[in-house]
Amino acid sequence: MEKRELLYSGKAKSVYTTDDADYMVLEFRNDTSAFDGKKIEQLDRKGMVNNKFNAFIMTKLAEAGIPTHFEKLLSDTDSLVKRLDMIPLECVVRNVAAGSLVRRLGVEEGIDLVPPTFELFLKNDALGDPMVNEYHARSFGWAEEEELNKMKELTFKVNQVLKALFLDGGMLLVDYKLEFGLFKGEVVLGDEFSPDGCRLWDKETREKLDKDRFRQGLGNVIESYEEVGRRIGVQF
Ligand code: C5P
User: Could you say which residues form the signal peptide (predicted)?
Assistant: First the structure.
């Protein structure tokens, strides 16, 4: 499949058309951003690490019966994916309180959430991705009830698969964000799953091994991503 013209460039990835209208190329760049793009840096090897990490996770999820857009790795930084019609919502599951939940509700970081919570955010940079509910999604036409149910079901199924995978590597999956789209009418997992879009803590020490290292200026960002990958069997 041939990589053609640039369709869209986001904060960390660029998307290219191919000679087949049903497929696109995702290019993972070294750009790393936080706080709605207010903090931006180039981190060596990040594009390669996230591309291979994402390929590994998407393959595990597909093996567990979760439909994903991932087709195959094309190079260190490029992957071939299905071209989805994206639903403009972010689905977040939280197993442990952290991040915006702690700020919003004033709860202590690190408390277990039983059962895990589910939140929806609207993808809108200008508004800072506000939290929305399923009624907003339906009333404004961002997603239909059936699609929302499917997104929620798949997001929780991902939790089952990945909580166990990371636990085997001695890590807690604290929370994560997923995005979905439609491919020929089916709700399919899109975007990426990497330490950029989830929180992972060492199970014993509770050391942060994810993008919070970048957000909080803790250093060794990519070294930690690679450590997470090594612990679950990703080959970089
Ligand atoms: O910031 P917050 O606590 O709401 O984030 C919840 C989870 O979603 C975190 O794992 C974070 O990395 C991820 N997230 C993301 N992209 C966003 C917002 C949150 O990957 N735009």
Answer: none
Ligand 1 atom nearest to CA at 174: 10
Please report which confidence band the pLDDT of residue 17 belongs to, taking 50, 70 and 90 as the band edges: very high
Label residue 227 by pLDDT band (50, 70, 90): very high
Reply yes or no on domain 85-221 having CATH 3.30.470.20: yes
Looking at domain 3-82, its CATH superfamily turns out to be: Phosphorylase Kinase; domain 1 (3.30.200.20)
Query: Could you tell me if the CB of 199 is within 6 A of ligand 1?
Result: yes
> What ipTM, to 2 d.p.?
0.98
Please give the Cα distance from 27 to 15 (Å, whole number).
Answer: 6
Q: Nearest to residue 165, comparing CAs of 233, 66, 69? A: 233
Domain boundaries, the chain: 3-82, 85-221
Is the fold of 3-82 the same as that of 85-221? Answer: no
Pocket of ligand 1 contains residue 180 by CB under 6 Å: no
Instruction: Measure 27 CA to ligand 1 centroid, in angstroms.
Output: 21
Coil, strand or helix: which one is 63?
Answer: helix
176 Cα–ligand 1 center, Å: 6
Ligand 1: residue whose CA is nearest its atom 3? 99
For residues 129 and 85, what is the distance between their CA atoms, to the nearest angstrom?
A: 19
